[in-house]
Amino acid sequence: MYKIKEIYYTLQGEGAQTGRPAIFCRFTGCNLWSGREEDRHKAICQFCDTDFWGTDGENGGKYTAEELAEKVTSLWPTSLKEGKPYVVCTGGEPLLQLDEVLIDAFQEKGLEVAVETNGTIEAPTGLDWICMSPKANTDIVLTTGQELKLVFPQKGAEPEKYEQLNFEHFFLQPMDGPEQEKNIQLTMEYCLKHPKWRLSLQTHKILSIP
Fold first, then answer.
1. Is the peptide bond before 92 cis (omega within 30 degrees of 0)?
2. Annotation says 89 is catalytic
3. Pick the catalytic residue: 6, 14, 24, 147?
4. Domains defined along the chain, listed by start
5. Active-site annotation holds for 131
6. The whole model's pTM is what?
């Protein structure tokens, strides 16, 4: 059974697929933080702003591969007849649960399958789009994919540590929080000086959508 926090239809808000209609399937659990606020101070990644604890979100619950593929498919408008149906497996850390069985179940429904991962777990085969977002103080084992999206700035996770990895797109995303405006300026300046990197903004927050 796959433990899911929430499933919902929205627009992808960041990175190379910004603006694309997508079904987000958020898996519970992460290997960098328990998800409990009282544990944040000892988390490997302390800036996470996502609720991935439990199964109480929209369409959350425990699913078999077939049930989850059916639920995700049901949220795409007009029964998958318009556009390229696209599911983003996110978390938490989805690769704690996402496997080839579920990928196959999604693809049998005609879904294009993406994952958003911290890169500390090898990805199963068959994924259509891999977005890796490295975090400081972790061992990256996932070194190839379509998109590398680095939250910036992170002490110990400087962009030059990752620019030789085998990804098609390289994005810097300003860290949210009390210093967001400063971080946006720093990110813009870095991208201008290092044009391998492109700026990614969290447009879903600007638009106030999930």
1. yes
2. no
3. 24
4. 2-207 (3.20.20.70)
5. no
6. 0.95
